[in-house]
Write a structure and sequence with these properties.
Layout: E1 9-11, E2 20-30, E3 37-47, E4 53-55, H1 57-65, H2 74-89, E5 93-103, E6 106-114
Antiparallel strand pairs: 1-4, 2-3, 3-5, 5-6
């Protein structure tokens, strides 16, 4: 199981609402069916809660790397990241989008939301 204990945070630097977006272009996990590596991009978008915390980037990178040898489906990756980040930073809202490189002629994009994600982030 990916290691959520790697996630660290720091106090939000502003009492005013703002949105954070981090994009990881080097995400890897393993297909549980074939054992082959899966490659994708992960977009994390969230609004820290008032008086809340932000995820620290090096810890986020290490957390993502804990998926590297994990046999896990795309959908489970996306939902696991959402659930573990929500528990770690307790945001006002959060969105995870995973875009997977094509295999067998099929590309996949999975989105998992938490809370009232603004409408302009919901369309694609």
């Amino acid at each position: 199981m990916p290691d959520a204990t790697l996630l660290e945070s720091f106090p939000t630097p502003s009492p005013s609402p703002f949105v954070i977006e981090h994009i990881s272009e080097e995400f890897t996990s393993v297909c549980p069916k074939t054992g082959h590596p899966d490659f994708g991009h992960v977009t994390l978008r969230y609004q820290p809660a008032a008086g809340g915390v932000c995820v620290e980037l090096k810890s986020l990178k290490m957390y993502y790397q804990s998926f590297r040898n994990e046999g896990i489906y795309y959908e489970a990756v996306t939902n696991t990241i959402r659930d573990q980040l929500v528990a770690a930073v307790r945001p006002a809202w959060l969105q995870i989008i995973t875009d997977w490189k094509g295999r067998g002629g099929i590309r996949s994009t999975i989105r998992a939301d938490f809370g009232p994600v603004p409408a302009h982030y919901l369309g694609r």
